[in-house]
Amino acid sequence: MEVFQLLGDGFAVALQPTNLFLAFIGVLLGTVIGMLPGVGPINTIAILIPITFALNLEPASAMIMFAGIYYGSQYGNSISSILLNVPGTASSVVTALDGYPMAQQGRAGPALAMSAIASFIGGTLSIFFLIFFAPLLARWAIDFGPAEYFVLMVFAFSTLSSLTGNNVFKGLVSAIFGLILATVGIDPQGTATRFTFGQMNLLDGMDFVVVAIGFFAISEVLQMLSETEDEQIVNTGVGRVFISMKEFTSSIWTIVRSSMSGFLIGSLPGAGSTIASFVAYTTEKQLVDEDDNFGKGDIRGVAAPESSNNSASVGAFIPMLTLGVPGSGTTAVMLAALLSLGITPGPLLIQDNPEIFWGLAASMYIGNIFLIVLNLPLVGLFARILLVPRWVLMPLVATLSFVGVYAVNNNPFDLLLMTAFGFIGFFMRKLGFPLAPVILGLVLGSLMEVNLRRAMIYSQGDWGIFFSSPITIGLWILTAVSLIAPIFIKRIAKRRRLLNLEGE
Amino acid sequence: MTDRITGIVLLVFAALYGFGAFRLKAGFGAGPVGPKGFPIMLAIVLAIVAIGIILRTDPDPVWLKRGAWVNIVTASISFIIYAYLLVPIGFIISTTLVTGFISQRFGAIWWRALLTGFASSLALYALFVFALDIPLPIGRVFGGR
């Protein structure tokens, strides 16, 4: 079959020594930052972007490393959930519900082993889905005109805004704020200078690396500074990391189901691995939890979210690579990286740059094998990283942020912008505004405006073009649904006492 | 109450932004929408959403204790000072100082904090300048640019 031929070519890319090395670095970094509360894939990738420029990495190589960080973080995030009851990233909040009780009962080893195995199965199954569905979607999207793209972006914003955080309006404000930031500087068709307040530094617009680091890394440092730290008793004794055959067979269908639902949810624009893990957990609780054991240390309660959040992180590449419209904060940062490397993702990417798509898919198989090795026998070693005190970790995050921001333009002005965004981001967190939509807005802003203006040029000023094709009408309906549906979802969620999930 | 105030601030912001957009002048060949169409649209949607926030408020957040405020404000000020010191006195000294300060705010005793700052700035300088070939300022006082 053609697919295997292409995947073979992908392996030829992924097995080049540089790419193999970058995949390894990516998953290693991903495991570590996924585990540490306060550092996530978004700020890590943002900090690394200037470095990939400096090293002149090929777009495919950069993507292999960034993707490794993303799915690697989905392995690592469960370690702190299980051992400390503190999720490393939002998508493992649910893992703590059963993982932490297991650790308290002295079963940290099986919980960690299950988490790694479920992650591996979820991660590898979903790559299959990726290589079969992405080309199909790309073929379908090839007829999209500017009007379709514009409405598609509206849809992406509405889903991301309504699904992250618990107030639709606040999610929308975040998205609009990102779009507003994107309008600073010379407009995309070069006809006017907007909102620069006479600052030469702003003519080229806000650099997304600066904004992303400010919003995610600096605001996180401020957030941590504002908390009075409880003395945490870190028990990194994990015991033997293994699961019995019985535990494995009891969970296998949970893993398969959760991988499938996770992929589906992850591939929707807007719904990322956080929501996927939440859905998988609640579904499995209803399906298999006969004796009401979920929440008390049921190993299937670890298997469900861990397989689905890995699967979702692979699914999230579909809208980003095939439509050029990312669905989560992390894929938005990766899209921004691709754009600045001169690659415009869209329906033609798989055809025009097969080495990026197939190389990435192949590297994901390799990366998952690295990850299972890192996370099964070596997890006890990794867990020791949790012993690093905050007064070492957080200053290091700050320093890395400074270097990352300064390296973009060698301009100290960017450090001022970073500080300002860190401060704003801190207040937005406090007031319940999700941050992921800001990044999506900033990255998509000029694309959205370009498509709006092109569509209006085609239609000679008739707004009807945005309602003229079945695709646009369908997308408007989906947009409306995505804005109204959370009200109902929230009623269910409230009953389950599981609210306050922030986008990854 | 917090959300009411937030909503009003957002409304004012939407008005100012929309007004700023309205006054933009389009150059030649800008098309039917021009450079102001998209920003005006954003201002309108923001205003609508801001009203939504005023009407459907969340419970007030738990505000910070005074010590936390002091931490956040001083940390932010130290970042700003850093931006002005970086080029004149160079990466290593300025980063040691600000990183040490942050470390101290996270509860480290002063010599450990300074050591953390010095070690991390030295390590990153080596990594970026020597391994990755990304220039960082040496400092004007040391003859850098």
**Radius of gyration of chain A, in angstroms, nearest whole number:** 22 Å
Q: Count the strands of chain B?
A: 0
Summarize the amount of helix of chain A as a percent range: over 70%
Largest sheet of chain A, described in full? 2 strands, antiparallel
| Structural domain tally of chain B | 2
Domains of chain A (count): 1
Question: How much beta of chain B, percentage-wise?
Answer: under 5%
Tertiary shape of chain B: flat
- Total strand segments of chain A: 2
Radius of gyration of chain B: 23 Å
Question: Can you tell me the residue ranges of chain A where pLDDT is under 50 for at least 5 consecutive residues?
Answer: 497-504
Q: How would you classify the quaternary structure?
A: heterodimer
Task: Report mean pLDDT of chain A, rounded to a whole number.
Answer: 87
Describe the structure.
The complex is a heterodimer of chains A (504) and B (145). With 504 residues, chain A is mostly helical. Chain A has one domain (2-495). Helix content of chain A is 72%, strand content 1%. Chain A has 21 helices and 2 strands. Chain A has helices at residues 2-14, 17-35, 41-54, 59-84, 95-104, 108-141, 146-163, 168-182, 208-226, 245-267, 273-288, 300-315, 317-323, 329-340, 349-352, 354-375, 379-383, 390-409, 413-431, 436-458, 470-495; strands spanning 185-186, 193-194. Chain A has a two-stranded antiparallel sheet with strand order 1-2. In chain A, strand 1 and strand 2 (193-194) form a beta hairpin. Residues 497-504 of chain A have low confidence and may be disordered. Chain B is mainly α. Chain B folds into 2 domains: 2-55; 66-142, no CATH class. Helices cover 72% and strands 0% of the residues of chain B. Chain B has 5 helices and no strands. In chain B, helix 1 packs antiparallel against helix 2 (34-55) and helix 3 packs antiparallel against helix 4. The radius of gyration of chain B is 23 Å and the shape is flat. Chain B starts with a helix and ends in a 14-residue tail after the last helix.
